[in-house]
Write a structure and sequence with these properties.
By secondary structure, the chain is α+β, with helices and mostly antiparallel strands. Helices cover 35% and strands 24% of the residues.
């Protein structure tokens, strides 16, 4: 019987960060930390995040008049890297699987640090394999339509098992929230529901491929446009998004991920005209303001294929029989909101 174990490493993401050799270099944070302007990129990114978290805190009345002149909060970020070990071959040689971000909110007035949400950004070698290797190969076959029957199943089982692992439970007390861009192929309609930090909720016309893929990871999705934003964000979560997290935790996630989206999807998130009652995102929108931060979107796309091949060669192919046996055994076991199997 195949056993799968997980381990977690943490790396501080600050203006001195340099991507590790095994880091997925297509991630938002790794892409920004490369090139001649790496430190300037990172310094400006963190300034944008801190400005935004303090703006959201003021709008949600999480601060008082004393904080109007001196920003109260700062967001600290750690890169959480999860590795997977198959059949005890040696956890030191485990294959990197997932990278997410952990937020910590520093209260500059009191010096107190509050652990924020884990997740935020989401990167995965196996997801690269599914979207950059499996899907194109399937689409290239004659007389094929839709998706492969098992598309995303292994990745979903790995993710839910990671949340149920001792490694996750020992490190995090709450389930993750992944915050991504909305799909440019779907329409979003404004609802009447408003949250003090997340803003106004939108409903999507239909599921996107990303939504379906994340559903196999046990995650449902809601769409909110935070105050003074240009477009909704997609929040993938396990439990009750509005009840399980404090306003300050949510503010740190919005500030972090909206900043990333403004940098690499300014056509949507730095658009001059904000989303209306009915909204269709467009990456060809000419009416936007680019940030001064250098980001190579074309390289990010190209490297996803390279990293999908890495997953195929170093994880999928060498362990295929064992992974198939393991996945068929654990598939569709539910995960409770604290990360353990229910």
């Amino acid at each position: 019987m195949t056993n799968v174990d997980f381990s977690i490493d943490s790396t501080r993401f600050d203006e001195d960060y340099r991507p590790l050799p095994n880091s997925r270099i297509t991630t938002n944070f790794a892409n920004l930390a490369r090139g001649e302007k790496r430190q300037e990129n990172l310094r400006n990114t963190f300034a944008m995040i801190d400005d935004r978290v303090n703006e959201l805190a003021r709008l949600a009345k999480l601060t008082d008049a004393e904080d109007d002149t001196t920003p109260r909060y700062s967001v600290e970020l750690d890169i959480i890297s999860a590795s997977v070990d198959v059949d005890g071959e040696g956890i030191r040689d485990a294959v990197p699987l997932i990278e997410v971000l952990q937020t910590t909110i520093l209260d500059r007035r009191t010096g107190e640090r509050t652990q924020g949400i884990v997740g935020n950004n989401f990167s995965s070698y196996v997801r690269d394999y599914d979207f950059s290797i499996v899907l194109p190969a399937h689409s290239a076959k004659p007389d094929t339509a839709g998706l492969p029957d098992d598309f995303g199943v292994l990745h979903g089982d790995l993710f839910t098992s990671f949340l149920a692992s001792d490694a996750y439970a020992e490190r995090f007390s709450k389930p993750p929230v992944i915050c991504l861009s909305v799909s440019s192929s779907k329409t979003y309609d404004r609802t009447e529901l408003t949250h003090p930090v997340l803003g106004v909720e939108y409903r999507q016309s239909e599921y996107s491929l990303t939504d379906a893929y994340f559903a196999k990871m046990g995650l449902k999705v809601r769409f909110f446009m935070p105050p003074n934003s240009a477009a909704p964000l997609a929040f993938y979560h396990l439990g009750d998004l509005l009840a399980d997290y404090s306003d300050l935790e949510l503010a740190a996630t919005v500030a972090t991920m909206e900043t990333f989206q403004k940098i690499y999807r300014p056509e949507i998130y730095n658009a001059t005209t904000p989303a209306g009652a009915s909204y269709r995102p467009s990456l060809s929108n000419p009416d936007f303001t680019a940030t001064s931060i250098v980001y190579d979107r074309e390289e990010r796309s190209r490297l996803a294929t390279e990293q999908g091949k890495f997953a195929e060669e170093h994880f999928i192919n060498p362990h295929k029989a064992a992974l198939d046996e393991w996945s068929s055994r654990v598939h569709r076991q539910p995960v409770d909101v604290q990360g353990g199997r229910s």
